[in-house]
Amino acid sequence: MITVGILGGGQLARMMALAGAPLGLRFLVLDSAADACAAQFVPLLGADYRDEEALAEFARRVDVVTFDFENVPAESAEWLARRVPVFPNPRALAVAQDRLAEKSLFRELGIGVPAFAAVDTREDLGRAAREVGLPAILKTRRLGYDGKGQFRIRAEQDLDAAWAALGAQAERVGLLLEAFVPFEREVSVVAVRGRDGEFRAYPLTENWHESGILAASLAPAAVDDALREAALAAARRVAEALDYVGVFALELFVRDGHLLANEMAPRVHNSGHWTIEGAEVSQFENHLRAVLGLPLGSTAARGVSCMLNWIGALPERDVVLDEAGGHWHDYGKSPREGRKVGHANLRADRAADLAEALDRVGAALGRRAQVAAPIARLRA
Ligand code: AMP
Fold first, then answer.
1. Structure pTM?
2. Ligand 1 — pocket residues by CB below 6 A?
3. CATH number, residue 304
């Protein structure tokens, strides 16, 4: 019997455990929150990620360790890696935790990135604004997610406000100024690399955000072959450079037909949730296969899929259940503003049928805005 240890017990751990059950796997999650949603049916070790006694118990009870949460302290991941196999490796985790390190790596690998500059002081911010150009976005280097820890700077006169908002964090998590990209599209590559170096990528996914949080994903994205190949090649280069094992996502902007890398997530990713019903083998199962050294599964899409994220609260479930290709994913979390509490996957064999299903669901739930862009793409 193999037990997979997961650092972090949120919805990603929950969906990983659901995918691992048919493989006969057991799980143990480590999370400081007693109400971590994976713990509704996965054994929980409730402790802080820095608690060495808890880490020692965790290492004793599991055969391999992985993550549902990338902001686990790098030292804790390294501590565990000296005692039990940890995938992805702690260096990959450390790079992906730091926007400056990851953007520098992308650039070294010849992958396009928006202009960026590190910012430590108010003076740096002025210098960085001249170097990078405005408009720009000031971001925390570490611990930011879903648009948190970001400040849009439109013009010179916003610099003081940006510093007032984020300057206090410069010392603790570092800051980065990044050119604002007026992108045509946002896409992501969700890919998996095995212990033996085998690499497989899912079809490219197109994503739409609202207030910095993913609202909808459509896959396979309708992009030309050259763009798709370039995106997949970039993901492969990153994975190989980091000797990455497991699933990861590379988020990219498309600007004037070219790709600019935004960030990577060293874990299964929200923009890969469509793969649960929309791909031959889901990102969750493929992640487990990779970290356990099992044969990787097919990343081929089954028709066309659209994932709709439920933020804050769940809408009416039966509207989705009534759809032939409708699949409901409730994370078992209590509602809270800005919180990801579930998603729906809608799948169809033909683009026209998926567009119709999205139209019905969007109308019935009063969420026409959320489905408008995916429908427009499907009908283009
Ligand atoms: P992030 O936390 O970096 O993934 O940012 C969340 C979202 O904010 C992205 O998915 C984009 O929609 C937007 N965003 C972040 N950085 C930029 C940028 N440099 N230019 C334009 N939009 C951005």
1. 0.96
2. 114, 137, 144, 147, 178, 180-181, 186, 209, 212, 251, 262-263
3. 3.30.470.20
